[in-house]
Protein backbone atom coordinates (compact mmCIF):
# COMPACT_ATOMS: atom_id res chain seq x y z
CA UNK A 1 0.00 0.00 0.00
CA UNK A 2 1.26 3.47 -0.87
CA UNK A 3 -0.57 6.04 1.22
CA UNK A 4 -0.85 9.67 0.12
CA UNK A 5 -2.56 12.28 2.25
CA UNK A 6 -4.08 14.65 -0.26
CA UNK A 7 -4.61 18.03 1.39
CA UNK A 8 -5.84 20.98 -0.58
CA UNK A 9 -5.19 23.83 1.83
CA UNK A 10 -5.32 25.10 5.39
CA UNK A 11 -8.77 25.43 6.90
CA UNK A 12 -8.08 29.05 7.73
CA UNK A 13 -6.67 29.96 4.30
CA UNK A 14 -8.37 33.19 3.17
CA UNK A 15 -7.99 32.05 -0.48
CA UNK A 16 -9.79 28.74 0.06
CA UNK A 17 -12.77 29.53 -2.17
CA UNK A 18 -10.57 30.86 -4.97
CA UNK A 19 -8.43 27.71 -4.81
CA UNK A 20 -11.42 25.38 -5.02
CA UNK A 21 -12.65 27.28 -8.07
CA UNK A 22 -9.24 27.45 -9.79
CA UNK A 23 -8.82 24.56 -12.25
CA UNK A 24 -5.09 25.18 -12.54
CA UNK A 25 -4.67 24.83 -8.79
CA UNK A 26 -6.82 21.69 -8.68
CA UNK A 27 -4.91 20.17 -11.61
CA UNK A 28 -1.69 20.21 -9.59
CA UNK A 29 -2.95 17.11 -7.79
CA UNK A 30 -2.74 15.17 -11.05
CA UNK A 31 1.05 15.27 -10.72
CA UNK A 32 0.82 13.60 -7.31
CA UNK A 33 -1.50 10.88 -8.58
CA UNK A 34 0.60 10.35 -11.72
CA UNK A 35 3.85 10.09 -9.72
CA UNK A 36 2.35 7.60 -7.29
CA UNK A 37 1.03 5.50 -10.17
CA UNK A 38 4.46 5.46 -11.86
CA UNK A 39 6.23 4.64 -8.60
CA UNK A 40 3.93 1.68 -8.03
CA UNK A 41 4.34 0.45 -11.61
CA UNK A 42 8.14 0.59 -11.32
CA UNK A 43 8.77 -0.49 -7.75
CA UNK A 44 5.72 -2.23 -6.36
CA UNK A 45 3.33 -3.51 -9.02
CA UNK A 46 1.83 -5.89 -6.44
CA UNK A 47 0.63 -2.92 -4.35
CA UNK A 48 -1.99 -0.23 -4.81
CA UNK A 49 -2.38 3.45 -4.05
CA UNK A 50 -4.69 4.71 -1.34
CA UNK A 51 -5.69 8.25 -0.49
CA UNK A 52 -6.06 8.51 3.26
CA UNK A 53 -7.55 11.19 5.47
CA UNK A 54 -8.80 13.33 2.59
CA UNK A 55 -11.00 16.19 3.62
CA UNK A 56 -9.65 19.00 1.53
CA UNK A 57 -8.46 21.22 4.35
CA UNK A 58 -6.56 20.54 7.53
CA UNK A 59 -7.33 22.28 10.86
CA UNK A 60 -10.81 20.72 10.86
CA UNK A 61 -11.68 22.05 7.44
CA UNK A 62 -12.91 25.51 6.62
CA UNK A 63 -16.06 26.76 8.32
CA UNK A 64 -18.82 27.51 5.82
CA UNK A 65 -16.79 26.02 2.95
CA UNK A 66 -15.76 22.42 3.69
CA UNK A 67 -19.29 21.45 4.68
CA UNK A 68 -21.04 23.14 1.74
CA UNK A 69 -21.85 22.42 -1.89
CA UNK A 70 -18.78 24.41 -2.93
CA UNK A 71 -16.48 21.74 -1.52
CA UNK A 72 -18.10 19.11 -3.77
CA UNK A 73 -16.28 20.62 -6.75
CA UNK A 74 -13.01 19.66 -5.09
CA UNK A 75 -14.29 16.32 -3.78
CA UNK A 76 -15.75 15.04 -7.06
CA UNK A 77 -12.68 16.19 -8.94
CA UNK A 78 -10.52 14.27 -6.47
CA UNK A 79 -12.62 11.11 -6.83
CA UNK A 80 -12.43 11.31 -10.63
CA UNK A 81 -8.73 12.08 -10.68
CA UNK A 82 -7.92 9.35 -8.17
CA UNK A 83 -9.77 6.80 -10.31
CA UNK A 84 -8.08 7.99 -13.48
CA UNK A 85 -4.69 7.22 -11.93
CA UNK A 86 -5.73 3.79 -10.61
CA UNK A 87 -6.06 4.70 -6.94
CA UNK A 88 -7.89 1.78 -5.33
CA UNK A 89 -9.10 3.33 -2.06
CA UNK A 90 -10.15 6.88 -1.24
CA UNK A 91 -10.69 7.47 2.47
CA UNK A 92 -12.51 10.55 3.60
CA UNK A 93 -11.12 12.24 6.71
CA UNK A 94 -14.22 11.88 8.87
CA UNK A 95 -17.82 10.79 8.83
CA UNK A 96 -18.48 13.18 11.72
CA UNK A 97 -16.03 15.78 12.95
CA UNK A 98 -14.66 19.18 12.16
CA UNK A 99 -16.05 21.11 9.24
CA UNK A 100 -15.08 18.41 6.73
CA UNK A 101 -17.23 15.60 8.10
CA UNK A 102 -19.75 14.01 5.79
CA UNK A 103 -22.41 14.55 8.47
CA UNK A 104 -23.12 17.76 10.34
CA UNK A 105 -21.42 17.68 13.72
CA UNK A 106 -24.52 18.73 15.69
CA UNK A 107 -27.53 17.59 13.66
CA UNK A 108 -26.03 14.56 11.85
CA UNK A 109 -27.74 15.80 8.67
CA UNK A 110 -25.66 14.85 5.63
CA UNK A 111 -23.48 17.56 4.15
CA UNK A 112 -23.34 17.91 0.33
CA UNK A 113 -20.17 15.79 0.07
CA UNK A 114 -22.08 12.89 1.62
CA UNK A 115 -24.40 12.86 -1.39
CA UNK A 116 -21.45 13.15 -3.78
CA UNK A 117 -19.88 10.09 -2.14
CA UNK A 118 -23.19 8.22 -2.17
CA UNK A 119 -23.80 8.84 -5.88
CA UNK A 120 -20.22 7.93 -6.70
CA UNK A 121 -20.48 4.70 -4.73
CA UNK A 122 -23.81 3.69 -6.26
CA UNK A 123 -23.06 4.54 -9.88
CA UNK A 124 -19.37 4.36 -10.67
CA UNK A 125 -17.91 0.94 -11.30
CA UNK A 126 -14.29 -0.21 -11.38
CA UNK A 127 -13.89 0.27 -15.13
CA UNK A 128 -12.40 3.73 -15.64
CA UNK A 129 -12.58 5.10 -19.17
CA UNK A 130 -10.14 7.52 -20.70
CA UNK A 131 -11.51 10.88 -21.79
CA UNK A 132 -9.47 13.19 -23.97
CA UNK A 133 -10.78 16.70 -23.61
CA UNK A 134 -9.09 19.74 -25.08
CA UNK A 135 -11.65 22.37 -24.09
CA UNK A 136 -11.67 24.79 -21.20
CA UNK A 137 -9.79 23.77 -18.07
CA UNK A 138 -12.89 24.91 -16.16
CA UNK A 139 -14.76 21.85 -17.45
CA UNK A 140 -13.86 18.58 -15.71
CA UNK A 141 -14.96 15.25 -17.20
CA UNK A 142 -14.62 11.65 -16.03
CA UNK A 143 -16.24 8.37 -17.15
CA UNK A 144 -16.68 4.89 -15.68
CA UNK A 145 -18.48 1.71 -16.52
CA UNK A 146 -21.57 1.35 -14.38
CA UNK A 147 -21.29 -0.57 -11.16
CA UNK A 148 -24.04 -3.01 -12.14
CA UNK A 149 -25.58 -4.24 -15.35
CA UNK A 150 -29.01 -2.77 -15.96
CA UNK A 151 -30.48 -6.13 -17.01
CA UNK A 152 -29.09 -9.63 -17.16
CA UNK A 153 -28.79 -9.38 -20.95
CA UNK A 154 -27.18 -6.01 -21.32
CA UNK A 155 -23.70 -4.66 -21.04
CA UNK A 156 -22.84 -2.24 -18.27
CA UNK A 157 -23.81 1.36 -18.86
CA UNK A 158 -21.21 4.04 -19.06
CA UNK A 159 -21.61 6.87 -16.60
CA UNK A 160 -19.86 10.10 -17.25
CA UNK A 161 -19.88 13.13 -15.12
CA UNK A 162 -18.71 16.56 -15.90
CA UNK A 163 -18.97 19.85 -14.17
CA UNK A 164 -17.92 23.39 -14.75
CA UNK A 165 -15.92 25.16 -12.09
From TrEMBL:
One example of the protein's molecular function in GO is:
beta-glucuronidase activity
Q: Which GO terms describe its cellular component?
A: membrane; plant-type cell wall
InterPro entries reported for this sequence? GH, Glyco_hydro_79
Pfam families this protein is in?
Glyco_hydro_79n
**Top-level taxon:** Eukaryota
Q: Which Gene3D superfamilies match?
A: Glycosidases
- Entry coiled-coil feature ranges: none
Q: What is the similarity comment for this entry? A: Belongs to the glycosyl hydrolase 79 family.
**What PANTHER family does the record point to?**
HEPARANASE-LIKE PROTEIN 1, HEPARANASE-RELATED
Protein name (Swiss-Prot/TrEMBL): Heparanase-like protein 2
**Protein source organism:** Dendrobium catenatum
